[in-house]
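Q: Here's a chain of 116 amino acids. Please give me its 3D structure as tokens.
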Amino acid sequence: MVLVQTKIVFHVDELNKWPEVLSNVTNVLMDLAQHDDHHIQMVVVANGDGIMGYLIPSINDQISELAKTVEFHACHNSMVSHGLNSARIPSGVHIVPVGVIDLASLQDNGYRYLKP
């Protein structure tokens, strides 16, 4: 059996896109559970107004569950521009200095960019 490896980065820069992103991530994980020949790495990068999603309890509940298999990143620059400090970001979310550089770096490392 050949193991297929895929890397995906989801970009969230609008608050109203969080439900769609989380649905996409969940759908990928459900499909992955049915295919033992596939390995997927996923990262969700939030910047701009999307950073505010980390303050919504229902989103945080889903992130807590998904963080076992998905990485979540928060842009520090967006946090500053929206008046957020690291204490307000859920534990397990990795704070990156600049979200757009994080997105570019992930793409340089083979991640496929998806934006709902």
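Q: Can you summarize the key feature?
A: Residues 96 and 110 are 18 Å apart (CA to CA).
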